[in-house]
Amino acid sequence: MEEKKEIIQFLNEIYNQNGISGLKKNNLIGTKYFNYLLKNKKYYMDIEEYCCELIGKSDEYIIYVSVCND
C-alpha cells in the first residue's frame, strides 16, 4: 500500500510539471514504477489513462484525448 502512495505522489509531480503528456509511456520507461504500472493497469487501458485514473484525473484525460485526436 505504501508503494502505491509513492507512485501516486510521483505521478502527481509529473502531472503538475508536464500535464497529461508527461505521463506517456516513453516518459515512464526506466522509472522504478514502470513495471508496477504496466502490471496493474487494466488490459484495455494505456499507461497514460491508467496513470490519470490513479491520480484522479480521468476527466482531464478524456478531454485531453478528445482535443488531441480531433
Output the structural class.
Answer: mainly alpha
* Main sheet summary: none
Q: What share of residues is helical?
A: 55-70%
Strand content: under 5%
Q: Shape from CA axes?
A: globular
Please compute the radius of gyration using only Cα atoms: 11 Å
Q: How confident overall, as mean pLDDT?
A: 90
Instruction: Tally the helices.
Output: 5
End-to-end C-alpha gap: 38 Å
Low-confidence stretches: none
Brief sketch in words of this structure:
By secondary structure, this protein is mainly α.
Can you walk me through this structure?
It is a single chain. With 70 residues, the protein is mostly helical. The chain has one domain (2-68). The protein has five helices and no strands. The protein has helices at residues 2-18, 25-28, 34-40, 47-54, 58-68. The N and C termini lie far apart (38 Å). The model has no long low-confidence stretch (mean pLDDT 90).
